[in-house]
Amino acid sequence: MKEEKNIITVNNLHKTYPGEVPLHVLKGVSFSVKEGEFVAVMGRSGSGKSTLLHQLSLLDNPDEGEIIVENKELTTLNEKEKAKYRLQSFGYVFQEYALLPEFTAIEAVSLPLILQHHSMKESRERAKEMLKLVQLEDRLDHFPSEMSGGEQQRVAVARALVNNPKILFADEPCANLDSETSKVILDLFKKLNKELGQTIILVTHEPEDEKYVDRVIHMKDGILL
Ligand code: ADP
Ligand code: MG
Prior knowledge:
By secondary structure, this protein is α/β, with parallel strands linked by helices. It has helices spanning about 50-55, 80-90, 105-115, 120-135, 150-160, 180-195; strands spanning about 5-15, 25-35, 40, 65-70, 70-75, 90-95, 165-170, 200-205, 215-220, 225.
């Protein structure tokens, strides 16, 4: 059963990239996502999807507007508070996996917990559980160079989930994968959403991905349609 509570509400978000010709990319974006919802943000390349995701997930600072997660307004946090919030409350998956080459799968997934001062033993146990969840229990000690793209992305998903995030943010997570592997990743997201009630905000430009999600938010020229 899905609850009807909003987990995130965005009000009138604006973002302009400075420069000789400043680029007004977000022009007043407002929407909410409910707890346990799986939402896709779709739109053409350059429409501002990544910019929107970066503001929502505290990786960048909007010029104007509010981001409210569980009744807490996040844009007023200072940089240190934002860093802590990201580590404790959000999970991230990017197109290029963002795995460090010198860490094995289990090390990569343990790291967010170790950074939050959990013991090595507890962190590794939890990491192992997460790698099992993404069906990589037989790749624990593999380095990124020893895994396929799909496997690396599943490590990234396990890493994103290890701190039990309020929201999982994914920016074109399948853009580097073939269609069969993309399906594995999107099926995994669907399973995490259905079985764990994980709230997911997925950016994609692939109209076909619509079938996996509860709702699509369409972006065009910096506004939601
Ligand atoms: P999308 O993810 O939908 O492809 P983006 O949010 O990445 O779109 O980009 C929206 C627009 O903002 C594009 O025109 C892009 O070139 C520009 N842009 C993105 N990031 C920056 C940046 N850091 N500085 C300046 N312009 C940027
Ligand atoms: Mg993008």
